[in-house]
Amino acid sequence: MPAKNFHVRQAAVSALRAWAKGHDYAETLIDRHAQRRKLSSADRALLQAILFGVLRHRRLLDHWISKLRDGKIDAETRDILRVGLCQLLILNLPDHAAVNETVEAGKASVRSLINAVLRRATLSKKRLLDEIDEVPAPVAYSHPDWLFNRWRLAFGKASAIKLMEWDNLPSETFFRTNPLAPAPESLPGKPVENAPGFFKLDGSIPTALLASGAVYIQDPATRHSVDLLDPKPGERVLDACAAPGGKAFLIAAALGSGKDLVCTDSNEKRLPRLEENLARLHAGDAKTSVHDWLKPAPPEFLGAFDAILLDVPCSNTGVIRRRVDARWRLQLPDIERLVSTQRRILENAVPCLKPGGRIVYSTCSIDRDENLGLIESFLAAHPEFKLHSTREALPFRDKTDGAFAARLELA
Known about the structure:
By secondary structure, the protein is of the alpha/beta class. The chain has 19 helices and eleven strands.
């Protein structure tokens, strides 16, 4: 008879196999497998803890596997061992559950191997944990070498290590109150210093407040780009890469409504969620449409906007703590490709400004090439613009998601 939580461990292994094939993001796989297996809320939380733990510590787990097992291991067995070792050495779950219930997730032909490796790990736990200090930093903190080296050059070794430590912690949840909705009598959180309207969640997610539009789950780092944009009532504003709508909501709140806000996104499939979020947040009067900003602007947009927000696609290096698989999906050549994409989007948005208008270019990256480097290159080619100001959030310094924003003003 299968062990009690066999289905949770099996779900974790199945999700990891699907993830390795590039099928979906971790969050999507958790939802899919939890629904498919009809997991309770407790079992779903366990599935998330295991899957996120394996992805956050994947490289360290593989290091431990190499210490505990000689010879080659097939991909599925390796994922099962990662699941087991994550429970034993990262999540500190009881040994009997981590071993017995994980063994059951393997095929009969490899269960004895899985059992032997996990039993060995329980006996060697203290030694394996004590030896982490002797392991190279990108292995100990499970980041690709190229990414650690890039951060070490940009921020120094100590800050690069702090950044990797930050990425491996469970993400915190923040929310923003909605000035367009009736104020709730009480809020389940504490105000965030220097971020008016933002609160750190204390307890469970307030589903009733979310449903009413009184609050929106949002990291304080998102405010920087909209603060720089500084939308004023009566101005016409474009949010060019708007889905799912978090920054569009902040713009509408500053404008007093969504009536002068235009939101576009390149993916038609994301529009329903964007429109649903805006409606719930009392900004449903904003206009939405599909447009790929790698192409020239629609004729009706030319010279039409006082302010434009470009929250462009990026490497996500500022939000790896929140997007746990981003570190493994991203490759060094992707940075150059992304910079080219970001520059094209910026160039195609320029003709949409009114004389004297402004653009805020923003990312959730902490990579200079995507941020200040791109802005400096753009300004060199566009003397008609001046750089008003920039903002940068660095997780190891500011204790929020990483972000960058630059305000460019047209003469």
